[in-house]
Structures are given as structure tokens and as C-alpha cells.
């Protein structure tokens, strides 16, 4: 038995898995991720400060500036999450 057993293991995931994680948080089905939906997504990804991460992700990925992430902007959101080194806990 190992001396140290981590509480969670961070597994690397690919961009398609990120898209699926973000899309499943679109709880109202409008094709856009609101701030609240992004918060849930970053919580699921294990962010230590998901509120801050939402603001930063909107800064990087919200191209039209409407305060949400559309399907057209999802690619930029995924690039941001990958760049930040996110995985699934």
C-alpha cells in the first residue's frame, strides 16, 4: 500500500472532453454559457477560485462582449482552459 494516497487525481483530457463538459453545463439549453453555468463548469474542473476563473475566461473567450459564451466562442474557451492546465478531478 502506498504511503501517500491523493484525495483526487487530475487526469488530462482532450479538447473534445472540455467541450462536452462545458456544453453539459448549459442547463437552460439556450446554446450559451452564462456566468452561473461557467461557474459550475469551472467548479467541476476543480478550480480553486471559480468566480475569478469565470471573469478571466470571459475576458479571453467572450468575443462579442455579451457576457456569455456562445457555441461560436466555445473554441476560445476550450483553448483558455487547456492553456490553464485544467483536467478532471
From TrEMBL:
Pfam families: EF-hand_7
CDD domains listed in its UniProt record: EFh
Residue stretches in coiled coil: none
Positions of transmembrane segments: none
InterPro entries cross-referenced by the UniProt entry: EF-hand-dom_pair, EF_Hand_1_Ca_BS, EF_hand_dom
Keywords: Calcium
Signal peptide residues on this chain, from the entry's feature table: none
Start and end residues of each EF-hand domain: 13-48, 53-84
Origin superkingdom: Eukaryota
Protein name, entry field: EF-hand domain-containing protein
Organismal lineage: Eukaryota, Viridiplantae, Streptophyta, Embryophyta, Tracheophyta
